[in-house]
Amino acid sequence: MDRFIETIIGDSCDQGCAESSTELSTALTLETALQLSQKLDQQLKTSQQVIQKAIEDNTETYAKAQKETEKAQNSITKLLEGVDELQAKLGDTETGIQARLDMAIQTKEYKKEQLTSNSAILRCLRQLAGINEGLREMDLMIQGGKLDEAALKILDIEEVLGGIEELENTRVGEILRNRLEMARMNIKERALQAFHKTIAVEVSHHAALLHAQHETNTNVLFAALDSVEDHGETCQAFNAYIIDTFVKPVLSAPSLELNDKSLDTDFSVRINREGSETEASDVSMVVLELVAFTKRKLGDRAWTDSALMEITQLVLQRCFLKRIPETRADLEAFDKVVGVLSDFESSLLAQCVKPPAEMPIQNAVKRLDELFIEQQCSQALAQARKLAQSTSFAVHSFEEHETWGVEFLRGIIEAAGTQLDSSLEQRAEGQGQMVFPRCVVSESMARAICRVYWLINESAQCTREDLADRLKEAAQCSIDAYLALFPVVHRQQLRRVPALSWQFHNDCLYAAHHAAILARLDQNRLGQWTRTAQTALKRGTVQATAIVDAESRELKSLIDSGVFYSASEIVQKQQLGQMHKQVQLAVMQLCAGMKPPALTPQVFYRACGSYLDAVFAATIEGIVGVSDISADDSQVLSDHCHSTLGLSVHFKLDTDILNVYSKLASDQHENGVLWDSDSDGEGDQECARLTREYCKMADKLKQLADILVISRADILARRRAGLLYQFSTDEYT
């Protein structure tokens, strides 16, 4: 059959159809596809003339063949009668008539099959001619805007094309199907263009407008889309355009107001991106009026179910999820907003063709408590991250020691705008008072701790245990997150600014102090809070060690062992004096930044002792390394050792400040490492005692100063008496 069709139309359209098929499959735009379809239509018209002539010629041939067949049939009938008689008389073997008769019958059957085939071919050609005419009419309908009629014509042509079995899996059939698919796309595109021409969108900084440009018979558009099995895709595309260009910009503005004077021809909304938040009731009214306006202009089918659901989600996000109160007291007043939004959702989704499987706003209302808790948790972690990344480094100084108790807890909670929960208050009363000594912590850490107690208070008011646990976990994670992020974000500043490093050290101790308190308040999470306290203490210890090690290396680098050689010479003696002044200035600056109340006395003493030990050790190493020391040099170096020992004066602290810490140490017995003032005496005696306690190298430096000025015999005598135990045999020699 394919061979016959190609023979009939091959000269006129075979090559053209092949090229058109290729061009149609690679067409980039609808307009290009339409031009190619017109070109194919012209070729089919030419082919129709050829086909019509072939049909006429074949009709005459068919009539002649039919007459000859009838004559042959009559002759064969007579022949069969004679053959039967002759065969009866002579037999088939003698006559040979049977073989010739069988051949004649086969010839007859072949001609009959040929006639049937020719009839089918003629029928197919007539149907192809009808399809060609249908395509031409379809194009005229599309160009004339009769999209519904064109869509019906497509269905008719498809029905005819599907009934031609001879065109199944043929090149001609594929070309015709592609032609119809392009027509479907053309109808959808023109329908979408018609929607856009009906309603135009204009959005500026102060207003948003839907302008009805002209009336459109949308029934024709929807009928055409139904016929081409659009399944709402075109309408959904227009809905997406309205949502993206109008609805989202309007809902993103804090303040919006409906201009109800223009509802007949235009839909206008005044927006203010710097005004106060518009109430949920006004936002709901604007959205419902928007949907009603578009339906008046485009018909009841203007909005698809999925588009209405998307609008509902946008309103939910704008008026509900982003406006969940931050306190439980405000949460009770949120019921009015909940009622307005629930009514809005019912009104909007009632316009869906199919009832929605779920109601987003109503589901959110049912989960309001859970959403409130999620918001508090996320905000707490976000605040901890923000505080840890802050570069303000503001200082929160205590005017006096911080005493934790019910009043302290109530003050923090009430400052956050809520009331202390009675159950939490009872638990706090059972813990008594716990004191954190006066020192400098960051304002960021103080705010983070306040947020932690606020979360704990919220958890005490939860009726659901799982939500209460989430709040407690968020409180714990906010402390962990702050302490983990701060040293990473501010790594360079911590290395360059010792005061900031000590402040972070205090932050760690402050966090550990309150984590330990929370472990006693919340026995169910005792292990978690204890782990947080231990981690904070460890971070503080690591930070303090890092500061002391870094500054100790800097102090050692100031001591040049070369100046200890020939120390009595004028130049060397001057250099030795200059070096001592540099070291003295560096120690003074370091201690000035650490003195209480910047740090507690105990921490200050330990850091100061480590710095002095670094200086003492470098001095001892430099002097011991000198192989030959004259008597004059010995006296100079001994004086230098005594001057270096004089740096211990930096242990001396203000008496008034020490008295505050001493009183605290006498009243409290917990956390002695942090609170002990270590002040038992006054003046030089106190400095000497602290030097012996916190400087491991002080005695050795003092012994070296004596060794440099006493005789060898005295040295041996003292060694035998065990008074020079600090020095090894190698160091003596």
SSE topology:
Elements: H1 2-25, H2 30-90, H3 92-95, H4 97-143, H5 147-163, H6 171-198, E1 199-203, E2 207-212, H7 218-227, H8 233-252, E3 255-259, E4 266-272, H9 280-298, H10 305-319, H11 328-332, H12 335-349, H13 360-366, H14 368-389, E5 395-397, E6 402-404, H15 406-415, H16 422-429, E7 434-436, E8 440-442, H17 443-460, H18 465-489, H19 491-496, H20 498-521, H21 526-558, H22 570-592, H23 601-624, H24 631-645, H25 655-667, H26 672-675, H27 683-694, H28 698-707, H29 712-720, H30 729-732
Antiparallel strand pairs: 1-2, 2-4, 3-4, 5-8, 6-7
Compact description:
The protein has 733 residues and is mostly helical. The chain has helices at residues 2-25, 30-90, 92-95, 97-143, 147-163, 171-198, 218-227, 233-252, 280-298, 305-319, 328-332, 335-349, 360-366, 368-389, 406-415, 422-429, 443-460, 465-489, 491-496, 498-521, 526-558, 570-592, 601-624, 631-645, 655-667, 672-675, 683-694, 698-707, 712-720, 729-732, and strands at 199-203, 207-212, 255-259, 266-272, 395-397, 402-404, 434-436, 440-442.
